Recover the amino acids of this structure.
């Protein structure tokens, strides 16, 4: 013990007289370990604490405070009481000691065992003895922290202090300027308000001391380590100001005053604060200020050029209206909501009668914001506005006017989340149901496409709400839509009509089944109409088919189109047939949500499609007549139909699908196909003797088996893989061997790891190596294709063998014949494949496989590039730009520094494809350029500007876009290039291609604005 | 209304914007030269912002395609613009913005003529004379306050 005492005395001595700061840490470690107690420390400090030298006393208190900061949690109540008494007393001491005293108090107030009454006495002493604003920043922060801790632990006691506490706080915070301390002070104020402290007669004082910061204008110093943002300050101040309705009488005039400000952020902040008031205030606080607030909001919304001000104004209005809607009516007072809305209506309504003047839109938006605030508000506003709009519509004859009116109407028809009728309430529009439908139908027959487009939108909105369209109206609407699909060729209108049909068909399927589908079917199969009409019909069929009942009617029509295309009866072109398949695929996507649709595809559509394709292939082989269904483009379009449908199949039908497909392709089992008139021994996976024909149907096998869920077991998979491997290595038809390779890869990707998989991989890798090494072999392309797809399959699932395979691909970059294909192969490897090996097909795709691949291989690529011969370098650059352009932005940004020299090299490479893909990968990076780019600007500019006169138009366009993007870099970095860029860009202004001139104009305009007043 | 500056014409007529120029097959063809035509010039100036309103010159019908004339071979451009009201004090500024936009966007072989549609402004001649005087245009652009307003008219809105 005695020994410890002398140690402690030594430590104290060294700290106090020796000024060795590190001894404080040692002392607190000692206290924490139980080596000394606080009492011993105080005793040891005795001499210094009672010294007549303020500096020595200060040192002593400092040591004690620092130890307390570490050990406050282990103190007993008695100790705390004594220490508090000591510290409170010290507050009266010399000013050099005060900082340490406050530190000590801050530590003590964090104790969980504060004796009763201590909080009050601490605060009283602080408020009495200290003038907070004459302290330094850190000490002021101590005071706020003391308040915060005491409010946490001793709320009752503080409330007992009553208004004195508020007064003390107001006095200590008055004049605070540092944002860090302000955040703390705002927190104290928010606690005061939200936890129900009695503000007494100091409401106005507290408001004054807080509101003097409103609206906050704070721009943090550059590279601010504390990371306080304007946003943070604004939000915490707003919570204080809008926290209590007692502030209303002061805050609302302040908001009205600040709305007159010329500074946009002040306006936005004021409006947002007003919107926040709407949540806490009631009618009582608002009443007096409503006319003033309304006129300010109206002025801001109708005059502003900024969308932020406009939307803030609209939400403020909406918040006011919903606050008024909540207020409870007295029997003798007037309805405040009604009064306020009639003010709004009086100011806005007449503008709606002038559909070609500017104020029509701001007024409409204000009315819509008010109507959208509550059900009651929407009733009042609609009752006044809808009849007026309908009357205006009928009185006006110009299409442009009618269109504006209808667009305004559209905003009133769609209810918002707040104004939606509750259960049992009718839509506010029920009274106008007939006249609304009448106006929409008349607009649908107008000659202006714009008006018709708006009408379809209103129609969808009406259809979405129950009770607004009677059965006859729905039927009339469907007839109008059918007519528009058949007759109107404006692309915007057709897509609006199709969209509207889709949304209505989801709610009223019967009308579409009985009226629209038969009419479209007749038109498509009549053989009379032209391709554009048929295309619209097909698109419309796809968009209405979201429910199983509609799908069962619409898909047979599409199948019939394919069948008649196959027989050649209606003269469908290959493009049309492919478009039909795209529509089928869109329908198949609904199978994900509806099992019934999935089953329908499994039972009817897929067998039919397989049967048709098989018929077509056999017929071509036998008769030489070529059906569109043998075309690669059509087959490639059928693949997604089947794979989308198969991917959605549930377990049992999925297994059946797998079994059927495998037995068809391996054994020629055609029993499940419709119209069974096929020869018995078809061998679909044989490559011999034909150019495509049957073998290309392997893509359909891929569509069926590669997209099934991973849990589904594929029967006879080993035999299947062997046959696919054979086909992909020996077939000479590009489409067939590529599809076979993809199918092989799709199966390998899903196969569980284990010996069986290893055996397959070993066999195939050996075969690929043999083929590739034999440079005179005619089947190196096939082997390369298989290698590429197997690499992709393994890379996606992080299989250990994938590195060996991708290394082989890297080696092929310097191959004289396959180099360029290998470079493009990296594009395949890195991008998402649409028909196989994607997540939609349930493939095993690990997250971030691209980053991983890049991280593991970028050095190989750079080394390969550096050691390659000059004429082969372009392959490496092409591979690099494929890899980089598929990486996520974030990774691109971090990796760019290392790659920049290579990318710059790629820009000066003569290959236009390399230039183009490098430019397209640079452009997004330039929008948010990393630091490393700054040092390379000179090189970048000279290469980009040179490319603006490239012979290839796409390169010129892409390079101009990059130059444009560079104008957004920080001004000081690019300003030195301004004159040079402007001069260089004058040349493409006279380019012979308009598209190039357009980019040059856009880029040059931005560069002119750079560094110019009013520019940027 | 209190606060803010009052607008000369607070509720002007609004006209519909024309759509984007449709792409044709020849636009994509490397070998075909596309001459600079009226629509292209109109596209350059239609999106210029009005100095007062958050609207473009096209929406206020200050510029119209039929009032744009270009001759690519002779390198001549002539643009007429129509102020919204005959006493519009912004006419010179609008004319200057159009002129500056064309100067920045056209090859320097072009002679650019910007003037007020005859009979639509009280001090038409004075404005036209100012706009035609090269030195005065250059001097105006040396004035940083004027340049600031012109640049604001020419910048693409982001807010």
């Amino acid at each position: 013990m005695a020994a410890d005492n002398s140690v402690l005395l030594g430590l104290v001595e060294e700290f106090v007289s020796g000024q060795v700061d590190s001894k404080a840490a040692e002392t607190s470690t000692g206290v924490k370990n139980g080596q000394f107690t606080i009492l011993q420390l105080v005793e040891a400090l005795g001499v210094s604490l009672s010294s007549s030298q303020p500096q020595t006393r200060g040192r002593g208190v400092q040591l004690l405070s620092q130890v307390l900061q570490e050990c406050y949690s282990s103190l007993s109540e008695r100790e705390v009481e004594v220490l508090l008494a000591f510290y409170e007393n010290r507050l009266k001491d010399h000013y050099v000691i005060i900082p340490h005293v406050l530190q000590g108090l801050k530590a003590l107030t964090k104790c969980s065992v504060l004796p009763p009454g201590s909080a009050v006495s601490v605060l009283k002493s602080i408020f009495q003895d200290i003038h907070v604003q004459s302290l330094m920043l850190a000490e002021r922060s101590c005071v706020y922290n003391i308040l915060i801790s005491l409010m946490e632990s001793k709320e009752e006691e503080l409330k007992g202090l009553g208004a004195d506490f508020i007064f003390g706080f107001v006095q200590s915070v008055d004049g605070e300027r540092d944002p860090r301390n302000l955040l703390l002070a705002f927190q104290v104020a928010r606690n005061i308000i939200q936890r129900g402290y009695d503000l007494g007669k100091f409401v106005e004082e507290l408001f004054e001391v807080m509101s003097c910061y409103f609206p906050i204008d704070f721009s943090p110093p550059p590279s601010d380590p504390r990371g306080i943002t304007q946003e943070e300050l604004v939000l915490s101040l707003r919570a204080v100001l809008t926290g209590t309705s007692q502030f209303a009488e002061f805050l609302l005039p302040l908001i009205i005053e600040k709305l007159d400000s010329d500074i946009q952020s002040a306006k936005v902040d004021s409006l947002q604060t007003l919107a926040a008031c709407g949540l806490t205030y009631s009618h009582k606080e608002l009443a007096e200020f409503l006319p003033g607030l309304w006129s300010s909001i109206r002025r801001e919304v109708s005059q502003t050029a900024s969308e932020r001000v406009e939307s803030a104004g609209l939400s403020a209005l909406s918040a006011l209206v919903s606050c008024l809607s909540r207020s409870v009516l007295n029997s003798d007072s007037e309805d405040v909501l009604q009064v306020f809305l009639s003010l709004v209506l009086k100011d806005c309504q007449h503008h709606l009668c002038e559909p070609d003047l500017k104020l029509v839109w701001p007024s409409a938006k204000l009315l819509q914001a008010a109507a959208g605030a509550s059900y009651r508000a929407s009733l009042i506003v609609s009752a006044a506005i809808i009849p007026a709009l309908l009357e205006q519509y009928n009185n006006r004859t110009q299409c442009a006017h009618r269109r504006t009116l209808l667009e305004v109407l559209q905003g009133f028809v769609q209810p918002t989340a707040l104004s939606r009728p509750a259960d049992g309430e009718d839509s506010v529009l029920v009274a106008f149901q007939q006249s609304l439908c009448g106006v929409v139908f008349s607009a649908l027959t107008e000659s202006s496409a714009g008006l018709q487009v708006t009408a379809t939108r209103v129609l969808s909105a009406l259809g979405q709400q129950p009770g607004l369209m009677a059965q006859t109206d729905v039927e009339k609407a469907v007839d109008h839509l059918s007519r528009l699909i058949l007759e109107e060729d404006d692309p915007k209108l057709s897509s609006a009509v199709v969209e509207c049909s889709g949304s209505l068909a989801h709610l009223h399927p019967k009308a579409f089944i009985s009226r629209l589908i038969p009419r479209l079917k007749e038109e498509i199969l009549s053989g009379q109409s032209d391709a554009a009409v048929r295309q619209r019909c097909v698109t419309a069929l796809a968009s209405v088919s979201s429910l199983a009942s509609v799908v069962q009617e619409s898909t047979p029509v599409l199948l019939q189109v394919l069948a008649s295309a196959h027989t050649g009866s209606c003269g469908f072109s290959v493009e049309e047939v492919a478009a039909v398949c795209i529509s089928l695929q869109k329908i198949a996507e609904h199978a994900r949500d509806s099992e019934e649709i999935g089953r329908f595809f499994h039972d009817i559509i897929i067998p039919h499609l397989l049967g048709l394709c098989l018929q077509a292939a056999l017929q071509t082989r036998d008769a030489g007549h070529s059906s569109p269904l043998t075309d690669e483009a059509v087959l490639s379009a059928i693949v997604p139909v089947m794979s989308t449908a198969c991917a959605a199949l549930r377990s049992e039908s999925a297994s059946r699908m797998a079994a059927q497909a495998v037995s068809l392709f391996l054994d020629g089992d055609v029993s499940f196909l419709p119209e069974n008139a096929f020869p018995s021994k078809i061998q679909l996976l044989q490559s011999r003797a034909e150019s495509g024909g049957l073998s290309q149907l392997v893509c359909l096998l891929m569509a069926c088996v590669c997209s099934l869920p991973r849990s589904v077991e594929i029967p006879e998979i080993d035999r299947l893989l062997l046959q696919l491997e054979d086909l992909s290595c020996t077939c000479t038809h590009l489409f067939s061997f590529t599809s076979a390779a993809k199918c092989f890869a799709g199966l390998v990707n899903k196969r569980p790891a284990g010996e069986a998989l290893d055996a397959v991989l070993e066999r195939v890798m050996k075969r690929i190596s043999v083929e590739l090494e034999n440079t005179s072999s005619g089947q190196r392309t096939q082997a390369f294709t298989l290698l590429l797809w197997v690499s992709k399959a393994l890379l996606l699932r992080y299989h250990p063998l994938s590195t060996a395979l991708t290394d082989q691909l890297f080696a092929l970059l310097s191959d004289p014949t396959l180099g360029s294909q290998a470079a493009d192969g990296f594009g395949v490897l890195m991008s998402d494949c649409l028909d196989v090996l994607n997540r939609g097909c349930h493939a095993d795709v690990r997250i971030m496989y691209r980053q991983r691949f890049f991280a593991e291989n970028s050095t190989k690529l750079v080394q390969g590039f550096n050691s390659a011969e000059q004429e082969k370098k372009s392959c490496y650059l092409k591979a690099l730009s494929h890899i980089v352009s598929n990486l996520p932005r974030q990774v691109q940004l971090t990796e760019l520094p290392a790659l920049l020299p290579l990318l710059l090299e790629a820009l000066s490479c003569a290959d236009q494809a390399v230039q183009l893909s490098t430019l397209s990968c640079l452009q997004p990076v330039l929008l948010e350029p990393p630091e490393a780019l700054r040092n390379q600007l000179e090189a970048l500019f000279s290469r980009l500007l040179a490319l603006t006169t490239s012979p290839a138009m796409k390169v010129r366009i892409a390079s101009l876009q990059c130059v444009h993007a560079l104008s957004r870099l920080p001004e000081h970095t690019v300003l030195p290039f301004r004159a040079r860029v402007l001069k260089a860009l004058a040349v493409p202004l006279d380019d012979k291609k308009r598209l190039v001139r357009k980019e040059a104009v856009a880029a040059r305009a931005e560069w002119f604005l750079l560094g110019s007043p009013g520019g940027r | 209304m209190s606060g803010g500056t009052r607008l000369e014409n607070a509720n002007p007529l609004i006209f519909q914007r024309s759509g984007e120029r449709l792409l044709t097959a020849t636009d994509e063809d490397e070998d075909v030269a596309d001459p600079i035509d009226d629509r292209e010039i109109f596209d350059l100036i239609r999106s210029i912002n009005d100095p007062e309103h958050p609207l473009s010159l096209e929406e206020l019908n200050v510029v119209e395609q039929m009032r744009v004339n270009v001759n690519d071979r002779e390198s001549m451009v002539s643009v007429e613009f129509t102020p919204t009201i005959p006493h519009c004090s912004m006419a010179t500024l609008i004319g200057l913005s159009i002129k500056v936009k064309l100067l920045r966007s056209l090859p320097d072989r072009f002679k650019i003529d910007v003037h007020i549609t005859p009979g639509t402004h009280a001090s038409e001649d004075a404005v036209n004379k100012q706009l035609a005087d090269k030195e005065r245009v250059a001097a105006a652009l040396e004035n940083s306050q004027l340049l600031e307003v012109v640049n604001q008219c020419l910048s693409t809105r982001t807010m």
